[in-house]
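Bug: token stream looks shifted between consecutive jobs. Job 1:
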Amino acid sequence: MPNRFNMFIHYYPPNLLKQSKIWLVLVVLWVINGSSFLAIKVSIDTIPPLFSAGIRFSLSGAALFIVYLLRNRATHEHGERIGVQQWKDTLVLGVSLFVGGQGLLVWGTQYLSSGITGLLNSTIPLWVALISMLVFRKHLTKKMIAGLLAGFGGLMLLIAPSLGNGTLSPVGTAALITSSIAWAVGSLYSTKAHLPISILASSGMLLLVGGLMLLVPSFVLREFDAVRLSQISTASTIALLYLIIVTSMIGFTDFYWLVRMTTAALANTFAYVSPVIAVFLGWAILKEPITSLMLVAMSVILIGVALMVTTSSKSKSKSKNKPIINN
């Protein structure tokens, strides 16, 4: 009897399967990142922010890299050679994606609400598009520009009520804007970086190096002096474990796979959808109300994301892709 999976592969075009996988990974990334702001807020309640982020990324990166080595050993493969250039690119990405991107985000979150943090973080696709245009001379189509404007406009509608109370922290706001720019630079650089072909190896290297780098400013700021195991709450511990296993190990691997297989603009659409996910989580878990304005804003956001996804997929299909690696 023929294998049903092979029959499925035979009757469905490879491009359809690829697009289906991209959409599946996108949705998973949107959901994971949408819950991350709440988890970060809870984790840093009793754990210093940079120390929390450093531990989170170091442990998740080490776990992924160990899985990569064990899998090679189990299959009797020697794996690809990881050279000096790959470690150099990992260091560059460690500074941009983790110290600048995630480090400033976690540190700035202590001064802002999770909603405002999500709004400021949503500017990532705008920075990606702007840097692509100015540095890489990339031409932005009308649909792409419309998608970016729709996404950001929808987010403004979604979180606008929280902007008029005058409680925004200048320090936290500056940290989040800088964080968004640094993440945009890193995600664009990663598309040109020489990293291992294996997603497990490259993600493990980036997370491990980035986490260790974050422990340096944590040590300089003497956060270690404030760490008291007896004072760390159960909620913070659970949130940190969630960030290590789900947000970092699964979420970052999904993000990096999308950057490699599609475009940085498409991969960063999580910045638009995450606040929408957060609103629904608040309604389902915390019984927070959903207004008609929220529903309108969500519709505009999803339209913007759809425009970006369609444009990004078409432009990527015309270029030479790197091979899809199934890890």
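Job 2, same session, no restart:
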Amino acid sequence: MSRKRLKELLGRYQQAIRHYCNSLGWDYNTFKNSISDEGISDPDLYLEDPNVNIVERITQFLDPSTQSSVFIIWDDVGMGKSSIRDFVSRSLNDLDNYHVVLITDPRLTSLQILRVIAQELGAEAEVWSDRAQVKNVLWERLWEIAEKGISLVIWVDEAEKINKDIISELRALSDLKNEDGSKACKLILSGTPSLMQKIEGYVKSDPEDAAAFEDRASLNTFRLNKWSADDIYNYWGLLAEYCGGTNPFLNEAAETVLQISEGKPRTIAQITKLAFHVKAMDILDGKDSGIEINSQHVLRALREQLGE
């Protein structure tokens, strides 16, 4: 394919999407950024209905009077853990009395993670080589922010990839208490089912060091729920509202997407975007004049994507 031909196709493709967005009253740039390859990319598009209890559970967990120190969110890849992380962390950071430190690189060593947390809390960006020194600096910062009435939340994503040493260090941090007896920080781990297996194995292999994980008063777990057809349709309504216009997806399409996606939010979001693009190209090519997206558009989008 020539460079000129590629440029023409790209231009035509963008023209189709812009035209269809205009027909729906959607803002093109908002839609373009609303769904990524990772699924639902904006916290404003977080759909609470399938996991309505998790917000209440996390709220209770984060209350300073609650002695629980560890919260584990788990399920398969594509089930929306990142969406929940972004929604909760942004909501908390909008408040004056919470500070969230996100650990998104599970390849870090335990010492590196302690450094990251200390520096996120405003400690001078020195090159600490001594673990005891890093801990002292970190603990000092924990006391300082606690005196200001700020609650610290450490959120580790892809936590199934961290090792026992990291779990032990983070668990020790979550055990620290302020002068009033409240926890100095709370720890949230999100990951796949292997995270739960790792915690269970950790308890069995070193019961003395990991005894706190057996205390159900200090450990909360939440397994995410798959979406239903109603959830999918509600998500489309939320997407349309977010983009500023009409929802073009028909109810029948939700049942088709459910069967294909098995209720996984990331797959649902990706299918949504593919079907939207197919519909836009049909309109541009004169093959379709309506604005609705039905089951056939969904199935055609998947056939074209998979080459079948």
